[in-house]
Specification:
By secondary structure, the chain is mostly helical. It has helices at about 25, 35-50.
Amino acid sequence: MKDYRLQFKTPRDHYMFTLTNIEHSHGSSATNLGLSVQRNQCIVNTIAGKEIYPVSFNTTFQQFDLPE
């Protein structure tokens, strides 16, 4: 599971996290609100070192099938 840490070439004692990774093209206020809740859950769990917020996967509720 991704925890959205920035990867450095040398080991670090502290981490930096990113939510969207599009700041370079859209500015620091650019967020993908559809994914930010799940990403924040992963980041908080990583910082805490345990599951504070359960992270759900495969929660898509849209279907694009044609009726039979």
